[in-house]
Automatic annotation (TrEMBL):
GO terms for cellular component: membrane. PANTHER family: DI-GLUCOSE BINDING PROTEIN WITH LEUCINE-RICH REPEAT DOMAIN-CONTAINING PROTEIN, OS07G0107800 PROTEIN-RELATED. This is Leucine-rich repeat receptor-like serine/threonine-protein kinase At2g14440 isoform X4. Residues 30-361 form the Malectin-like domain. Coiled coil: none annotated. It comes from Nelumbo nucifera. It is found in: Membrane. It is a single-pass membrane protein.
Amino acid sequence: MSFFFFLALPLLLSSPPPLNSYPYDTSYRIDCGGQTNFTNRFNETWLSDRFFTGGSTSPVAETHLFQQQQEQTLRFFPISFGKKNCYIVNVPTGRYYIRTFTVYDNYDGKLHSPSFDVSVEGTLVFSWRSPWGDDVSRTGAYSDLFAFVKDGEADICFYSIATDPPVIGSLEVVQIDPLSYDSSTTGNNLILINYGRLTCGSDLLGAGFTNDTDLFGRAWQSDAEFRTGNLNSVKVIQTRRNVLGTNQRPNYFPMHLYQTAVTVVGGGALEYELSVDAKLDYLVWFHFAEIDTSVTAAGQRVFDVFINQRNVSRIDIFKHVGSFAAFNWHYIVKNLNTTYLRVKLVPVVGSPLISGLENYAMVPRDLATVPEQVTAMRALKESLKVPDRMGWNGDPCAPSNWDAWEGVTCHPNKDKSALVVSQIDLGSQGLKGYISEQIGLLTNLVSLNLSSNSLGGTIPSQLGQKSLTRLDLSNNLLSGPIPDGLSASSLQLVLLNDNQLEGQVPEELYSIGVHGGAIERGSNDYDFALPQDLISLSAKRNRYQRQKSLMLLEMETQNANGFPSSNSR
C-alpha cells in the first residue's frame, strides 16, 4: 500500500485563537526521541518521548533542515527489540485524529531508508518501502487518519520488514467529535486515511504550520500542485469577511478554509487529480462558500461534479446556504479500480468554484484479539519475563497482515468476529519467571510448550482448558502438585519431566500416560519410562531442544500405536 504524505514546511510565527468552545480536551503531542517538554510558537505543548515499548533515539543527521523542534529527533526500533514495537497511549474511548511525522535523513549513516509497516488500533494503515523518495527521505513526511479507540488505549505499532528498524519523528493523538465525517452513517469500524486534504486558493494552513487554527489538528495543503486541465484559466478569490457555519460541530472546519476559493474564467472546468490505491472505497468531501459578491441569487452559479468521469451531483451553493456561508457535501466512491481519483467541476451556469477538497480511504478495522485473551497474554508477558527481542507488544494477534507475537499462533473465532490464541511455543527461550494464573483466560488454547526454560512456581490450577490437547512444561523448575484442573482438559500429550513436582497424580490423567498414583522424584527426573514410539515422536519436535532424554508418563495400556497423534509443526 502507498499513502499520501504531507511534506514538512517551515514554522510561521503566530498564536491560535482560544479554544473555549471546543468540548474535547484530550490531546498528546509526543516529540519522539525528544528529552524535554516544550511549548512551540503556536502555544502547542509537546511532550518528551514516552508511551513507547522499546527502541532507541537519535537526532536527524541535518538538524538545520528542520525548523520545528519535534522534527529534529526520532525513535527507531532495532530488531533487537523484536519485529513489532508500539506507542500505547491511554485515552478516553472516542474518536481521534492521529498524525505521524516520519523521517530518515540518514540518521544512522547507512544511506538505507528502512522498510516497515505502521498499524493503528490493530489495522495496517501505512507502508514504507525502501528506497524512499529523496525529498521524503531527507526532509520527512506527515501522514494522518481518523480512528475510533474503543478500549481506552490508542495503539500505534511498527513492524519491521526483514531486519530494517522502523522510525518515527513525532506522534500526535487528538480527540475529535465522535460524529465527525458522517460516522453515524459509516459506523465506528472504519479508519479514514488521508489521501489528500486541500485548501483551494491558499497556501498550507492548519495546526503546527500557521495561525489558522484547526480544532482537530488537521493541516491543509495548497491545491495548486493537484490542479490539472487548463491552469491558465484558474482564478483565486479571497475575502476577509466572516463565513458563517464554520468551527461548528461535528466537523469544526476552520473559517479560513472558506475565505479562499478557486474558480475559472472563460467558462472552463476545474479539474483535480489525486493519487490513490485501487480496490478501496474513498470518502470524498467537498467544501464550498459563495464569497464572490457578484453572485446574489440562486441559479447564478451552478455546476456539476464529476468523479472519474461519472456525474455525481449538481451544486448551487447560493441555493443551499446563501452567500458567505459554508456548505460541504460528500460522496463515497466504491471499490475504486484505478490508482487515481479525478474530480472535475463542469459549469452549467456561470463558473464552478471550490474552497476545499478532502479524500479519505475507508479502511475497515482488522479483527482484534478477544479482550480477555489480550489481558492473559499481557499477564504472561510479565510473568514469563518474555525478552524484548521477541516483540510482544500491542495486540497479540493483530494486524492479521503481520505475524502474531513470536511463538504465538492465532486464528479467528467461530463467528469470525475476533482473533483468539490457539498455540504458544516458547521452548528454550531463557524464560525465568512463572506461569500466570491468567492463562486460564486463553479458552481456545490447544497447545502450550514452555519446555527447557527456568520457570518456577506451581502449575496454575486454571491451566485446564477443555481446548488444551498438548502440554509440554518439561525441563523447568516447577514445584508443587499437578493441579486437578488438568483432568478437565482434552489432553492427548503431557510432558512434565525434569521439574520438582510432587504429590498425587490426578486419576483422570492415567489414560494419557501416567502409570501409578504418585510422582516419585529422583535426581531431577521422574521415575517413569517413555514408550519407544513417543521417544521418536518427541525427537521430531526439535524446536524444544531438550538436553536430557524426554520422559513421558507411561501409558496405562501398553499399545503405543493407540496413542493419540500429536503432529510436529
